[in-house]
């Protein structure tokens, strides 16, 4: 992986995004942040070698009394660390202070070698708008024509002859695996603004049907979401579904608030979440992701994330991978016991996916991580953004008042690490894709800038760094 970074060091990660060059902002700042991150990543192996003696001391303390001495090579040391991570985490979780301190020391060492300057670069890149990298670019539609969409809309209409035309087709900001398009449908009685959520060409389509089913379930039960109109598997080239357009705008990005958010809006978000968590799921909808209710199901979700890391990296000593392994081991050792009350979890309930029309919450978007799970998942996902404006107690008060289930202290301390691990792994996969084919600015931003930031957050919480 280090060699791949070196292989693209000369590439301009922000090529084609130069409109701000004349005054030096914001694209030039973004390019500087991306290049700095690439240079730092390319030197990870050198920093590890320079600091190998410290890691060898830590590992040596752990292996006292066993045959043989720890290897001197940093790569071999890290392989040993990854092999030991599961047992270390379990013993630490059971109260072994020496193991807990050793894991903290190893995590601190890996942060120093693999993740230097993360916060400084994050601050620089956030000023350029990279905080919304996960939302993808707006612009011309990538793979849908007006005529193709017109045929599709007519195919889903009870009276196709009433559909006159499709116009103003445009691409919206959206995720990496989905395209988001908007269009105006002209019909005999007027017009309607619609939004198309579509699997991007070359991406897998496994979750879209479950996302649509969950969206319909939420809409039918009074959760504020865009009205689902239709799902089509083939007409637009890849699976897609349509919803109504909803007025409003997000008040934040994946890192927190980007605009002023007052008490009424915070309470509206809490009330909506309580309504979602109060739905009867005895007969649940088909969801895009599997349940995370039992310890076994949670372990399976962790293992899925670990398999993504391994596939993206190809080597346990690749940049970031040993620290990902430590975090995964921490999560496996600390899986909450019992089942608890199942709720429909949104999975990505943050300010970037909530539309506000004034102080009114007009829509909850992006249900691709929905599943049956525990209320603490959504609460802990939202918590940092609301704490940033000092209104977390107001949020909880409104949540409880609207019928939200009782809080679970064990899960409230567990899921913040899970969220950052999940997002860090997804960004790491994008990083690998960018290093293999450095073509898309959104891949560069998510992979190079967001992956280390999410991983650092997860490690800090898990190991109290």
TrEMBL record:
Spell out the Gene3D superfamilies in the cross-references: 3.90.1200.10, Phosphorylase Kinase, domain 1 (3.30.200.20)
Read off the CDD domains from this record: ACAD10_11_N-like
| UniProt cross-references to Pfam families, sorted A to Z | APH
Annotated InterPro entries: ACAD10_11_N, AGP_Transferase, Aminoglycoside_PTrfase, Kinase-like_dom_sf
Ranges for the region named Disordered are 1-30
- List the biased-composition ranges (Basic and acidic residues): 18-30
Every Aminoglycoside phosphotransferase domain range:
169-409
One GO MF annotation is: transferase activity
State the name under which the record lists this protein: Phosphotransferase
